[in-house]
Amino acid sequence: QPLLQESGPGLVKTSETLSLTCSVSVDSISSRGFYWGWIRQPPGKGLEWIGSVSYTGFLYSKPSLESRVTISVDSPKKKFTLRLTSVTAADTAVYYCARRFGSGWHFDSWGQGILVTVSS
Amino acid sequence: DIQMTQSPSSVSASVGDKVTITCRASQDVSNWLAWYQQKPGKAPSLLIYDASTLQSGVPSRFSGGGSGTDFILTISSLQPEDFATYYCQPTGSFSLITFGGGTKVEIK
Q1: Beta-carbon contacts below 8 Å between A and B
Q2: Which of A54, A79, A101, B7 has the fewest CB atoms inside 10 Å of its own CB, making it the most exposed?
Q3: For B96, phi and psi rounded to 5 degrees?
Q4: Using only C-alpha atoms, what is the Rg of chain B?
């Protein structure tokens, strides 16, 4: 299983853009069948899928977040980045990067997670 | 939107007990279902996919079953390291990705 590691600021101001990067230890981040995505978990609550980008660069995202979400892949650096615009306190959560690989939309590898707090 | 309902929301059990967790989908998902385990302060980890296929490295005391709308996760003999929260998730399409509310397995 690949290792995934999130990085980015732990504090973001209300209305600004949250930007997180996930570094992946794989031979090629663009290998066929790999989808790279983000899932978040507000403190003490359940899991929410944000979106995933395919090995072809196609973005799949949760409809309620679609207008605010961008996920991009930097293949040479083996990293992918989440950008979530116009954040509010409701976006405060632990953010996990994760990989989907296989026929179903299950996530077989996860990063350790990073807490992002949104505050004015 | 699909809804995933897990029951119970929490269960108290002892080491060696058999534990059963159910997950009900608001629409037919065939066998497209995954189960995850999450320990406090850690990321979730995949236990089972396609309703009953054990992820590599997961102990055989974990098993999954069901299809359509009703699914079950069974821990045949609870071990100390199994105390955690368990989540189900439909996996048939990106448009269905949502997680159940979780079931916390606590020490009795």
Answers
A1: 57
A2: B7
A3: -105, 0
A4: 13
The maximal CA–CA distance of chain B, rounded, in angstroms, is 38
Q: Which residues in chain B are closer than 8 Å to A95, comparing Cβ atoms?
A: none
Residue type, A29: I
Distance CA B36, CA B22 (A): 13
Q: How many Å apart are CA A7 and CA A9, to the nearest integer?
A: 7
**pLDDT 10s digits, B52-108:** 999 999 999 999 999 999 999 999 999 999 999 999 999 999 989 999 999 999 988
CA–CA separation, A22 and B87 (whole Å):
23
Burial B9-20 (b: 16+ CB within 10 A, else e): eebebeeeeebe
Give the three-class secondary structure for B3: coil
